[in-house]
Design a protein that fits this description.
The protein is an alpha/beta fold. Helix content is 40%, strand content 24%. It contains nine helices and 15 strands. It has helices at 24-33, 51-60, 72-85, 105-118, 164-170, 182-192, 230-247, 252-272, 277-292; strands at 12-18, 38-44, 63-67, 91-96, 99-101, 126-127, 130-131, 134-135, 138-144, 147-152, 160-163, 198-199, 204-207, 211-217, 220-227. The longest helix is centred in the C-terminal third of the chain and has 21 residues, at 252-272. The termini are far apart. Residues 33-137 form the Glycosyltransferase 2-like domain.
């Protein structure tokens, strides 16, 4: 059997999902273009005020696609399908609009992919080793002649190096989830195909924190939580419930670990987001109901 061909950054296409993106996306795209062969930015229904920014991205050399708003999965799938139809790429790098690659991110991710491919070890994606300087949780690994490769537990999709053969085997992202847990569902689906997510050694990703709030007890900070709108919390709860129902029987350890992490996050929001507490409780209850009933698609509200 012949060895796999060498992996080169020019063989990577980046797909960026964007919705009313910040001005920083221009500099981030400029930096990404230095690391990959092409960049496709998918405008997921932004308002007219974003038109100059998208024009600036095209001036840089990025391809910009416009579509009605459909959520992160639909936007990324639009980009993946566009890459496939227009010359293809053996690897696609998925990115959020508020993410920035660390130095040599793509080269490092390809190096991890190459180690696995030389050893004929299957994997679904190569994910970031760290986000905003924090290590990505891991879930075991595999020992190769070239050293150990760790498996990621539940990696965020921004920063994924996604091989075309994974998409061929596993399919596209699930658009019915719209937002939140899209990456978790794909991770679980890859795992079900025997393709766990790998940690890219040295792959550092800077990513926006959203609205981070401190958690205080008797005036003392005891940690923090990500503040979300009630609608977003309903999506989080619904989609998490759908994943639990779908994968608990076949991946109980992974599902229960993820469920514990999400439960702690919800409890922190309910305990410390005093202004929204009532609305958040209602959102959690409605999300549980939606998930137990198997509902997908956009939640109106």
């Amino acid at each position: 059997m012949s060895p796999p061909p060498p992996l080169h950054p020019d063989r990577v296409a980046a797909v960026v999902a964007a919705l009313d993106p910040p001005a920083s996306l221009v500099d981030a795209t400029r930096e990404t273009l230095r690391q990959v062969g092409r960049v496709v930015v998918v405008d997921d229904g932004s308002g007219p005020a974003s038109a100059p920014l998208f024009a600036a991205l095209e001036d840089l050399g990025a391809e910009v696609l416009h579509r009605p708003n459909g959520g992160i999965a639909a936007a990324l799938n639009t980009g993946l399908e566009h890459v496939r139809r227009t010359g293809g790429a053996p690897y696609v790098l998925t990115l959020d609009q508020d993410s920035r690659l660390g130095p040599d991110y793509v080269v490092r991710a390809l190096a991890t992919a190459a180690r696995l491919e030389r050893a004929r070890v299957g994997y679904g994606v190569v994910a970031a080793e760290s986000y905003r300087g924090h290590r990505s949780p891991t879930d075991g690994g595999v020992d190769l002649l070239e050293g150990r490769v760790r498996w990621a537990f539940d990696p965020m999709q921004s920063g994924w190096l996604l091989p075309a053969r994974t998409v061929a085997a596993v399919g596209l992202l699930e658009e019915g989830l719209v937002i939140d847990a899209v990456d978790s569902e794909y991770t679980a689906r890859c795992r079900a195909h025997g393709l766990p997510p790998a940690v890219g050694e040295g792959c550092a990703l800077e990513h926006g924190q959203g609205e981070r709030r401190p958690a205080r007890v008797l005036g003392r900070a005891v940690g923090g939580f990500n503040r979300h709108s009630p609608l977003r919390v309903r999506y989080l709860t619904r989609n998490g419930t759908l994943l639990t129902r779908r994968y608990l029987a076949t991946q109980p350890r992974w599902v229960l670990r993820r469920l514990a992490t999400e439960t702690v996050a919800h409890l922190l929001r309910l305990a410390f987001d005093h202004e929204q507490r009532g609305a958040l409780v209602r959102a959690v209850v409605l999300g549980w109901r939606d998930g137990l009933l198997g509902r997908t698609g956009r939640i109106e509200g």
